[in-house]
Design goal:
Elements lengths: L2 H9 L8 E4 L5 H13 L5 E4 L2 H9 L13 E6 L3 E2 L5 E2 L6 H9 L1 E9 L12 E5 L4 H9 L4 E4 L1 E2 L2 E2 L7 E6 L6 H9 L4 E4 L1 E2 L5 E6 L2 E5 L1
The chain binds ribulose-5-phosphate (5RP).
Amino acid sequence: MDKKKLAGEQAATYIEEGMILGLGTGSTVYWTIQKLGELVKQGLKIKGIPTSKATEHLARELGIPILDISEVQEIDLTIDGADEVNPDFALIKGGGGALFREKMVASLSRRLLIVVDDSKVVSTLGKFPLPVEVVPFGWEITSRNIARLGCSPKLRLHTAGPFITDNGNYILDCYFTEIQHPELLNEQLTKIIGVVETGLFVNMAEMIIVGGNDGVSVKS
Ligand code: 5RP
């Protein structure tokens, strides 16, 4: 069975009546959202806060009630994917380019549950290039300043030019060899003018659901 599907569907068992739910982005949480759509059709009352336009579109198609983030003070539970997870539950996110909204939603959440397949579980972050959202104005300068932190940033491209985030910004995929100190690196990056947000999520995830060959394992 598809490992992402296993993890994504398992996460739906943590959803309870009346919750305000952060709805993550990507091909793993896709399965959670599909399950959630079924639960809503069966009468479950929840409200969802999407972390991207793509997720909002999917949720609306499935009949999941949507709230704007400005309408909530707190989110009960957010379920989202990740590109890498280390043993301290520090994450690299943003492979799909939704990192800013994902971090904003995660920051309002009482609980952040991450769904991954076992290929995402690593001992040290950094093999996956770290996505950093930057303002288009002067992005070349921002990129040079980021490179001084020991990586090689590459502008993410789409079919007809730069990839544009839901917030109208660019993504620099930053190739480090290893990220030994994710919290420090996140602080250093967010101090650089032009950086909007980084894909490093530190001290945010509470639980990781991992889909593997032998089924699902839950780390908390
Ligand atoms: C999008 C993300 C995704 O959660 C991350 O890229 C994992 O995606 P997938 O579940 O498709 O592997 O951070 O910005």
